[in-house]
Amino acid sequence: MRKVLVLSVFVSFCFSVVYAQNTDSLLLQAKNLIQQDRSVEAVSIYEKILLSDQGNYESYTFLGNYYFLSGQKAIAKADADYQLIQSPNRMQVAHHHDELKAIYFTYLEKADRYLLRALIIKKNDHLEHLVSIIQAYKERIGIVPVTGKKKQ
Length: 152
Known about the structure:
elongated, Serine Threonine Protein Phosphatase 5, Tetratricopeptide repeat
């Protein structure tokens, strides 16, 4: 019985060392891809890291920032396109609103999820600021009720 226990502890230790080495090599690979301006490929590696290391702060922060910035670019483009319309009709207003919601579900929902997980691991003012921006955006597009305003 004792041999089985020692063997199982040894096997567990070996697996944890292999996972740590695998995570380290994947993090290095992702950083190299970012330096080569290949962020999309880095995203898949960071997501792969999280499959085996659900406490990897670096992966959560990268993915949160990546999806946040991607969402911000998409919002800026959608808003700029909408501003080109001189007098938008109801259909155009509704279309713009639907486009903003689609941007949330495509990018910012993922960003919010990753950022919140990173904040559970380690508090960070920058990440908290991004989460507050996402919250304000959810209020803007009507996904959540507006907070912080008192009824008079």
